[in-house]
């Protein structure tokens, strides 16, 4: 297992990114709200960037921990978390506002709970 302190730092960055996404998602009532105004598009862009960063970070964490950390939360679709990074990075001009809306509405809270659990577990191991 890699240095727990470095893992905690990465997980805290992810936690902060999720917080930004939740803040940017406030007031977005439907996928169309992302597309109807310049402010909505800015929120969509910002959330998408955070999804790219989170996906990349989890790819690295999964490699570093040889799959042992993420396996503690099998209820999270880790393949999807990591894969959305690839989709957004390679098709940035074709972002699916409905998919981003669904991710924000349904997946951020469980993901943040898992991240918080990982941080607590690693701190207890130090």
UniProtKB/TrEMBL annotation:
The keyword Ion transport does not apply. GO terms for cellular component: toxin-antitoxin complex. Signal peptide: none annotated. Keywords: Hydrolase, Nuclease, Nucleotide-binding, Phosphoprotein, Toxin-antitoxin system. GO terms for molecular function: hydrolase activity; nucleotide binding; RNA nuclease activity. Pfam families: HepT-like. This is DUF86 domain-containing protein. It comes from Desulfosarcina ovata subsp. sediminis.
